Amino acid sequence: MRSSKPQQVSHLTRRGRVVVLFGGVIALFSAMLMFGSFANATLTNQGPATQIVVVQPGESLWSIAQTVAPGADPRETVSRIRDLNGMTSAVVIKGQSLIVPASN
Q1: What is the pLDDT of residue 98?
Q2: Residue 21 host element (H or E)
Q3: How far apart are CA 98 and CA 69, in angstroms?
Q4: Which of 25, 32, 49, 55: disulfide with 96, CB 3.0–4.6 Å?
Q5: Full DSSP string of 43-90
């Protein structure tokens, strides 16, 4: 059986519409801030540019350091290459792939 009562429809007042709109703008602004900070965190955590080199016959870590950073102190570049690759010594072997600072 159907009720003969008419259904009541709610309408927002002008003030109610302003409050709902303002809440939506705040939610959108908050989402933009949150996702924007994630994007910035991703960009800033990338670190310096690197490249991969393969050790050729007769090459040493010192010669590779001089090749990838010709204007820099080879001692600093060797240390950086060792850090990037988790090396405990400066010994390299032919065919070994190394992460090195990118040449500019």
Answers
A1: 94
A2: helix 14-44
A3: 14
A4: 55
A5: HHTS-S-EEEEEPPTT--HHHHHHHH-TTS-HHHHHHHHHHHHT-SSS
